[in-house]
């Protein structure tokens, strides 16, 4: 049964696949307000050539004010093209809409006037990709993660969390989660926070979409429930 604030989706596969030997380590579960972001708002978060390394170190710096203090991102592990920036993006979608482009590993928040905030992301791996329209049905901060039975069948070591894994840095959902719904039903897919910078720009999840924790907090704070989400074909 789906529990408010808990994820019964399959996004947690990313945290277990390939890391069985270190199941309880931060790396195995993808350690997952914007401190220092004041100087890097929508109008000035990036130069025409993108965010510099020095800017990135500030934007992706530690967030000690969180319930579970978030460490700084090792930005050297992220291709600069995936740093947050404001870009031209022509679309007929309304401002506030979230567009996921899994083929390019980007998530866009439409700002209007032909502009969007663009975030680098990890996306679904082969066999787990999907596309279509959805909406944010609910939101969660430091949410409980519950692996679905299908995941437990694939990865039995996840069974220990069948009743839920409390929120925290070791939790696959990280600091913030947007739960995607269609026609009133939870799709089992989320947009979630990851602190594993090496995963940005790759397809490794079970269909969920991960942003760096600092980017996810930024998107989460500006995304109300019922926001439209468009996932493009990969």
UniProtKB/TrEMBL annotation:
Pfam families assigned to the protein according to its UniProt record, in alphabetical order: YkuD
Domain L,D-TPase catalytic: 96-232
Swiss-Prot/TrEMBL keywords: Cell shape, Cell wall biogenesis/degradation, Glycosyltransferase, Hydrolase, Peptidoglycan synthesis, Transferase
Domain of life: Bacteria
PROSITE patterns per UniProt: LD_TPASE, TAT
Annotated metabolic or biological route of this protein: Cell wall biogenesis; peptidoglycan biosynthesis
Residues spanning the signal sequence: none
DNA damage listed as a keyword: no
Family recorded in the similarity comment: Belongs to the YkuD family.
The protein's name in its UniProt record: L,D-transpeptidase
Natural source organism: Ancylobacter moscoviensis
């Amino acid at each position: 049964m789906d529990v408010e604030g808990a994820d019964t989706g399959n996004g947690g596969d990313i945290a277990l696949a390939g890391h069985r030997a270190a199941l309880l380590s931060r790396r195995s579960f993808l350690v997952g307000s914007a401190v220092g972001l004041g100087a890097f708002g929508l109008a000035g978060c990036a130069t025409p050539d993108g965010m510099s390394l020095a800017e990135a170190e500030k934007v992706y710096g530690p967030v000690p004010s969180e319930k579970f203090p978030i460490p700084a991102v090792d930005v050297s592990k992220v291709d600069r093209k995936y740093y947050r920036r404001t870009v031209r993006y022509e679309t007929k979608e309304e401002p506030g809409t979230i567009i996921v482009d899994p083929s390019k590993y980007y998530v866009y928040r439409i700002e209007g006037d032909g502009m969007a905030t663009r975030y680098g992301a990890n996306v679904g791996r082969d066999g787990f990709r999907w596309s279509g329209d959805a909406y944010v049905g609910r939101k969660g901060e430091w949410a409980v993660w519950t692996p679905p039975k299908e995941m437990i069948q694939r990865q039995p070591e996840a069974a220990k969390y069948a009743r839920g894994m409390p929120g925290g840095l070791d939790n696959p959902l990280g600091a913030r989660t947007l739960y995607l719904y269609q026609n009133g039903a939870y799709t089992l897919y989320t947009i979630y926070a990851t602190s594993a910078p090496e995963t940005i720009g790759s397809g490794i999840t079970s269909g969920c979409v991960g942003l760096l924790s600092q980017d996810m907090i930024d998107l989460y704070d500006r995304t109300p429930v019922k926001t439209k989400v468009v996932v493009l074909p990969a």
